Automatic annotation (TrEMBL):
This is Polyprenyl synthetase family protein. Belongs to the FPP/GGPP synthase family. Pfam families: polyprenyl_synt. The keyword Metal-binding applies. Keywords: Magnesium, Metal-binding, Transferase. The keyword Magnesium applies. Its EC number is 2.5.1.-. It comes from Streptomyces ovatisporus. Residues 8-17 have a biased composition (Basic and acidic residues). Its cofactor is Mg(2+). One of its GO terms (molecular function) is transferase activity.
Amino acid sequence: MQRRPSAHVREGSHDAPAHALGADPDQDTAAVIGTLLARYLTQRREEAARSSEQFAKDVIDLLVDVVLRGGKRTRPAFLWWSWRGCGGESGGANAEAVLKVATALELLQACALIHDDLMDGSPSRRGAPSAHVAFADRHRAAGLRGDAESFGASAAVLAGDLALVWADDLFQSAGLDAKARRAAASPWQAMRTEIIAGQYLDLYGQSTGVDSPEESLRVAYLKSGLYTVERPLHLGAAMAGAGPDLIASLRRAGRSAGVAFQLRNDLTGVFGGSGSAGEPAGEDIKDGASTYLVAIALQRARAHSRHEAERQLRDAMGNTELAPEDLRQVRDLLTALGAADAVEARIEQLTADALTALEQARLQSPADERLPALVRRVARRHPGS
């Protein structure tokens, strides 16, 4: 496969000492990303506080909590191991610039989580109140005028917007030279639009009750698969100067692995398990999300003339008042109709496709082992699911 020399940071920079990142990114990528996130957020908070301590205390501190509380740093890991697999260095200024771009992905993720929770009315995230709920609680506690829920929703929109703005700021200031920035600009730009497109299609699907398995897979790909796996792999390879064939192989792998990741989240979002990203099991049903899991169940119910099962599923979708017993019945239906097993089979096939594409890419060591392991991790069955 064609490879080019790895990108360099801007002229005049010097290699950063390994300890500046707090850990070796090959050994603990998540720890390095955590260090860079904390450093960047501290800097931006100090800047903002000079203009308004109220804004910093209320909005930025909540955003910092969302970003730093939990999270497996999956997207940065995919970017990093793509960079390494395409010949990128493990340390020095080049690597630090790439890691800053990887860190920006976590701010994009924060934007998506805050806005998604608001649109879905989710009460919690990663063991704490969702941003809009936290803002509403603060409004009530302070005895402010007006409606607390409206205030919470508006403040959450602003917090999510701020995360998006800061993600772009961090990308622009990461330290890549002109060539590397040009190579990364197109996937970065496309990814930001794709995230919003996926969120809108998810919202639209909830409103229309779309139950096509094919359409639900398209939403899963746009809403999560692209920016979770495919675009991070694309960014890492582009910054390393990879040729078009290598980038194409990585994108094929990312496309399959990204959809597998979202299908796994769909399962854990209904059946529970450690992979549910902190949201309570059953929220997808209450939200009326048009997931592949539900679409397959409805398709099978129609195919086998199980009209009562189809009616029960449709009645449950979007019903925010569902009791735990109702959710248990929905899970039983999804299992009895074979939908859960069908999703597991699709995840297995997608994972195999991703691993085949990675093998064809012939990545450099140690990424040739670490990237396949990462794909298996995001697609695997979680305990309790």
